[in-house]
């Protein structure tokens, strides 16, 4: 008799527990979507804000606040967030109370491409990145006759420069002319003709030696152009 009462008691408790879970789940599923918080992860200064992202979301989901959880497609929102030019990765997740949280990782631009017909960045992976609101990074600018076939060599050159504090600080612009590539320095009123990016380490080593020996004696304003395109030879044009 006692065993029967214990079994009945446990059966009743389990039944109540299951009922509560089903009722709670049903209530949550019928609950309307609410974004509880948005977190932005950045490897540099954060320019994406909660307000930026929420405003962007409202463009595709203007009635998000009236959408029930059981009709909400988190994958669709994640895919839409990934289309934002400044977002590298996005994750939409449900919290215990039925609200949703959003975690995004911010992209990082490494060079700006500016031509007569286009203006954009290359990101930290060498991919094209649109200009973004409230984002004004101080970057090396690549200009002139540039198309997508030049992206890899520009990205590789920027990666090379970033390993040297001197050269990354000295070069402010890369200009693609019809036949040659020119570097524009921050210090010195001259342009540097490198021809192309082949043997660029060797070319810049020679230029550094020229800077330390010749320029230091004659002055930074002596030459209008320094030509490095010829092997083992530096040709300078005086003003």
Radius of gyration: 29 Å
* Top CATH class of the largest domain: Alpha Beta
The shape, in one word, is elongated
Gross CATH architecture of the largest domain: 3-Layer(aba) Sandwich
- Overall pLDDT level: 83
Which class best fits the helix and strand makeup? alpha/beta
Could you say how many structural domains there are in total?
A: 2
Query: Residue share in helices?
Result: 25-40%
CATH topology of the largest domain: Rossmann fold
Distinct helical segment count: 6
Content of β-strand? 25-35%
Order of helices and strands: HEHHEEEEEEHHEEEHEE
- End-to-end separation: 111 Å
Number of strands: 12
CATH superfamily of the largest domain: Cell division protein FtsQ/DivIB
Main sheet overview: 9 strands, mixed
Spatially, the strands of the biggest sheet line up as 6-5-4-7-8-9-10-11-12
Task: Enumerate the spans where pLDDT stays under 50 for 5 or more consecutive residues.
Answer: 19-24
In a nutshell, what does this entry contain?
The protein has 239 residues and is of the alpha/beta class.
Could you describe the 3D structure shown?
With 239 residues, the protein is α/β, with parallel strands linked by helices. It has helices at 2-29, 50-60, 74-81, 151-162, 165-170, 200-218, and strands at residues 35-41, 87-94, 100-106, 109-114, 119-123, 128-129, 141-144, 171-176, 181-185, 191-193, 223-227, 235-238. Strands 6-5-4-7-8-9-10-11-12 form a 9-stranded mixed β-sheet. A 3-stranded mixed β-sheet has the order 1-3-2. Residues 19-24 have low confidence and may be disordered.
